[in-house]
Write a structure and sequence with these properties.
Layout (H helix, E strand, L loop, with lengths): L1 E2 L10 H12 L3 E8 L10 E8 L17 H5 L13 E2 L5 H4 E4 L6 H7 L9 E3 L8 H8 L60 H7 L12 H10 L3 H17 L7 H14 L13 H11 L4 H11 L5 H6 L1 H8 L5 H17 L8 H7 L4 H10 L16 H11 L9 H13 L5 H12 L20 H5 L9 H7 L4
Antiparallel strand pairs: 1-3, 2-3, 4-5, 5-6
Helix pairs in contact: 9-19, 10-11, 10-16, 13-14, 17-18, 17-19
Length: about 500
């Protein structure tokens, strides 16, 4: 399955988590990733979400590509010069000159171009079909002539701007011969201003768009040029499909079985969290949403023993009013912990909430955010611990924090660079561990706790981790799980 990244990267990632649960229940292995299709030879900036599910829990291994990127020049630099206008130079059928028309073609130069020409019959070796584009307005041609690949629409002279430059500052985009194309999308059927030819004063042709989408030259498109543009823009680039298809075939032939399941990981995490007598982040068990706010605001990033000491103080403050009433005790208690300044911050937050007449336990996320006194990350955590119903209808945001991404990266054997791609690969990995509905709440809190205690940035205490039996990081360290209760362990993780 392929779609835009936003399809899977909503705040709660509920669509993705539900799909994974359903597919795993049906006996499939599931792998998902946001990929740049340029890694598979597509000459575009084109980030797409891909999900692959293989029957009988066969493990899928992603294609790596050859590391060579195809530039715009290598993709379309061999195509002949073209004047804007729908009529091609030659037409075999006077009643349908576009479909039957062709331009004279010399020869391919780059490896990519040779690949695009390989499927043509011998009689068409000197022809290129569908090399037509829109007529060019005189003012557009003048604007195009002033542009290079770095020129923004707002840089053009005012008399050549037909649109508001404060809204459409990138309305016109000239492609860069030596770079990648902008993503080819279906909107190209309406206008081609995002795809101005690198050195000719026109937008790209149907054939050039097809090349940038990696359609070979022998592939034709049904209907008029606008329909052809729409078909091209809506498509998965064939070379991306080929790369993934080859990887699927290799995985099926190798037939390794995937040992990991989201449901199992989620259950193990949740059970571990529920069994913990004390937490490095004790406000993950705060009785009220306000207590979680207070704990995260006042005590975050303190060593566990110090945070637990401070928690004894703030746990007695279940709502903003109780915090205001205990202002002196709050200042005196936090000062020895080096957090005296946070006491004043908390009192200001509590006063603002009280003045607004808002009860954090009943408030929506939007109401708390509108006050402007709480950090977004604090609100996200408060609604993760006490979800209620988030503003977007999910069960709360997937928190790709430094800690949770560290755990997920180690588990899946990814690079442990907690700040790399936290909004894409990091969130996908975290979502896979917390799973769907059954155990996701406690599993998510377990990841936060693990990353701040057991799975530390230095040497993790793998023997204390519920996931060590299937963790790639623990396996590479030669870790052997020590079974304290063989009966329980066999039920939860299997005997290692």
């Amino acid at each position: 399955m392929e779609n835009v990244p936003d399809m899977a990267l909503d705040r709660g990632m509920w669509i993705l988590r539900t799909m994974v649960d359903e597919l795993e229940e049906l006996g499939y292995s599931v792998a998902e990733r946001v990929m740049s299709t340029s890694d598979l030879g597509v000459p575009q900036f084109r980030q797409r979400f891909f999900l692959v599910a293989l029957r009988d829990r066969v493990a899928f291994r992603w294609p790596t590509g050859d590391g060579v990127r195809t530039s715009v020049r290598n993709a379309i630099g061999d195509l002949p010069q073209l004047e804007g206008g729908w009529r091609p130079r030659n037409g075999d059928d006077p009643d349908d000159p576009v479909a039957s028309g062709w331009a004279e073609y010399a020869e391919p130069v780059s490896t990519f171009q040779k690949r695009m020409r390989a499927g043509l019959p011998a009689e068409h070796q000197r022809r290129v079909y569908d090399h037509v584009t829109r007529p060019v307005r005189d003012d557009d041609a003048e604007a195009f002539a002033l542009m290079d690949s770095s020129t923004r629409y707002s840089d053009l002279p005012e008399e050549l701007q037909r649109y508001r430059d404060d809204i459409f500052d990138d309305k016109y985009k000239r492609l860069d011969w030596d770079g990648l194309s902008r993503t080819i999308v279906a909107h190209i059927a309406k206008d081609g201003y995002w795809y101005i030819h690198p050195d000719q004063p026109r937008t790209i042709s149907v054939r050039e768009a097809a090349r940038l989408q990696t359609f070979p030259d022998h592939v034709r498109f049904s209907g008029p040029p606008t329909s052809a543009f729409r078909q091209i823009g809506n498509a998965v680039p064939p070379m991306a499909g080929e790369g993934l298809g080859a990887a699927i075939l290799d995985s099926l032939l190798t037939a390794e079985r995937e040992g990991f399941t989201t449901a199992e990981a989620s259950r193990l995490l949740a059970r571990w969290f529920r069994s913990r007598e004390s937490l490095a982040i004790p406000w993950l068990r705060g009785a009220t949403r306000w207590q979680t706010v207070v704990g995260e605001t006042a005590l975050s990033r303190l060593p566990a023993p110090v945070a637990q000491l401070g928690w004894r103080l703030v746990a007695a403050m279940p709502n903003p009013n109780s915090t205001i009433l205990a202002s002196d005790a709050l200042r005196l208690g936090l000062a020895p912990l080096g957090r005296g300044d946070r006491a004043n911050d908390l009192l200001d937050i509590a006063s603002t909430i009280e003045t607004a007449g808002i009860d954090p336990e009943d408030a929506t996320e939007a109401e708390l955010r509108a006050l402007g006194v709480l950090a977004p990350a604090v609100i996200d955590l408060a609604y993760r611990v006490h979800p209620g119903l988030a503003d977007d209808g999910s069960d709360g945001a997937v928190l790709a924090t430094v800690a949770t991404v560290r755990v997920a990266s180690r588990y899946f054997g990814e690079s442990v660079d907690e700040n790399r791609n936290r909004l894409t690969e990091g969130r996908l990995a975290v979502a896979r561990l917390i799973g769907g509905e059954d155990h996701s709440h406690d599993a998510h809190l377990a990841l936060l706790e693990l990353g701040n205690s057991v799975c530390s940035p230095g040497v993790p205490a793998c023997a204390q981790c519920p996931l060590s039996g299937s963790c790639a990081f623990a396996t590479t360290r030669g870790f052997q799980l020590q079974l304290l209760d063989p009966a329980d362990a066999a039920d939860d993780v299997g005997i290692v």
